[in-house]
Design a protein that fits this description.
Endonuclease, Chain A; 434 Repressor (Amino-terminal Domain); about 10% strand; alpha/beta
Length: about 280
């Protein structure tokens, strides 16, 4: 394939996006394809594909997947995209995302904040913007974090449907986030979640006291082969555990937590009552 005279020199070391673009060019040219041909196959404009290849635009997950399909590269570009966009996440979390995406059962317990799988878009926006203002993430990572949560929520409706059990500490409901309208939208989202055919929602009330078997947030997933995985976070790092001898006791504690928490009917009633108090 003859190279165009105005072919721009790429510097893959200048940024992760430049490395993505340079790799795209290499694979494309190895297959004897032009930018126009790949763009046509992927369903994007030639100008957009050129901008991604020269790092003038960031690739999206959708584009990475379409490139893989167009070039027959399996999930190579999707994996590069995930590696690029998982920068700044706690250790263990990127690996956990893969487990979550294929889990047949997900059990989560959260304290103080609505977990990502259950967040309303308004709640996510406030949370991510707050993290940026604190310096926890950069402005460039804001949209990436919002997109990541939206992508994770596809788990709620993917086929086959996973069973999702969520126990939320009462503080998740009573801790205000943003304007009252944000919490109104979030409470509505929880009610919608409770009505899905594959979900079960419970509230662990403050008065559980010493009967509470878990005090820190944790997520337990069951994989298709019935293997168990646990994921938990501290302020500084995430921890992914696959050893069943360590995970099994957490599963037993989770069952105890469900037994002590409000039933789903009573939990929904509590959320509806709180919902009445929002403007």
């Amino acid at each position: 394939m003859q190279q165009p005279l105005n072919r721009k020199k790429l510097d893959p070391d200048s940024s992760p996006h430049a490395a993505f673009g340079a790799h795209l060019r290499t694979v494309r040219e190895e297959q004897g394809l032009t930018q126009d041909e790949v763009a046509l196959r992927a369903g994007f404009s030639s100008s957009h594909m050129s901008a991604v290849e020269t790092a003038r635009k960031k690739p999206t997950l959708q584009l990475a997947r379409r490139i893989d399909a167009s070039l027959g590269t399996g999930d190579m570009f999707e994996r590069r995209w995930r590696k690029m966009n998982n920068a700044g996440l706690l250790d263990g979390f990127p690996q956990f995302l893969g487990d979550e995406a294929r889990a047949v059962e997900i059990r989560l317990y959260e304290v103080g904040v609505i977990p990502g799988l259950l967040q309303a878009p308004e709640y996510t926006e406030v949370s991510v913007q707050s993290a940026m203002k604190r310096g926890a993430i950069t402005s460039a990572q804001v949209e990436e974090r919002i997109a990541l949560i939206a992508e994770r929520q596809l788990t709620l409706t993917r086929k086959p449907l996973p069973q999702i059990f969520a126990v939320l500490d009462e503080s998740c409901l009573r801790r205000p986030m943003g304007e009252p309208s944000v919490m109104k939208a979030q409470l509505d989202r929880l009610l919608e979640f409770s009505e899905l055919p594959n979900t079960h929602l419970q509230i662990a009330t403050f008065d559980m006291g010493e009967r509470r078997p878990l005090t820190l947030p944790i997520t337990l997933v069951t994989l298709p082969d019935r293997a168990l995985v646990a994921y938990a976070e501290s302020a500084l790092r995430g921890h992914l555990e696959r050893d069943n001898s360590f995970v099994a006791p957490f599963l037993s504690a989770y069952y105890q937590l469900q037994a002590e928490a409000l039933s789903q009917a009573d939990s929904v009633a509590m959320i509806r009552e709180l919902r009445k108090g929002t403007p």
